[in-house]
Structure formats: C-alpha cells, structure tokens
Amino acid sequence: MTPAWSAPLERLAAIDPAPFFVLSLLPYLAFLWWASKVRAFPRLALRGFQLTLLFVAVTIVAAIVAQVRFDALLADVDGLHGGAEAFLTLSNLLVMLGFATAASQVGRPDDPGTGQGEANLDVRAGVGAEGPEEHEPTGRCEAQAEGHR
Length: 149
Hints:
The protein is mostly helical. The protein contains five helices and two strands. The protein has a domain at 16-106. A two-stranded antiparallel sheet has the order 1-2. Helix 3 (43-70) runs antiparallel to helix 4. It starts with 5 loop residues before the first helix and ends with a helix.
C-alpha cells in the first residue's frame, strides 16, 4: 500500500520544469533593469549579475553538446561542466568585487557612486563630513536621545 501523499508527489514529478526556468528569467531581468537605473548600485557588481545570464546561456549550450556529442548529462562531462561553471565563478567574483569596492568607498568625500561628495554621512556614528553635529532631539525618541548625549 502506498502512502496518501505519494500520488500528488508523482504528479508533481511529472511536470516539465523548463517553462518555470524560462519564467524565472523575467524577475531576474526586472532586477537587472532596476539595478541599471539605480545610480548607487556598483557598476562592477551589475556587470557580474549580467554575466550570470551569459553563464546560463553557456550552460544550456554545454548541456546540449554533452547530450548530443557524448550522450551524457552535463554533470558527467567534466570539461564542459567545468568550463560552464567558470562563467559562474567569474560572475560571482565581479559581484563580490563590485560590492566590496563600493563598501570600501562609503563615506569618502570623493565617492563618485553617490554624487553627494562631502555630504556623505556615516549614519552609524552620526558623524557628517565636518564632524559630529549637535541638534535638538525630536519626536518620540526624545528621552532616548537625551540619554545618548
């Protein structure tokens, strides 16, 4: 006797995942569009995210070559699999370097990423380009702000 949950799982396993893969590209393309419009988004990281699309294309081609030429899955053909994965490694490296570079430039007066120049603020410390500023506390947190002076 089979468990009651096996029939729905068998139906789910019979669904072809290819259309879902294609549909998953739509939100990713929307993300790339959004990231390209945001001035503060690191350009090198954006290139890394764009390179991820190249990784997808190379992986699809490599999988087809592995199937047609070697009658095997891409994971079973080391040269093709490693070559395709190299594009993912490169894209991840660009994303990491882009964000690392942007993070190291936060708060610098010559930061071209924000367009604010000396107006950059270190929000965590409450310090502006000219140093700490004294201001009157406002709002509900007035008592807390008085305690932090």
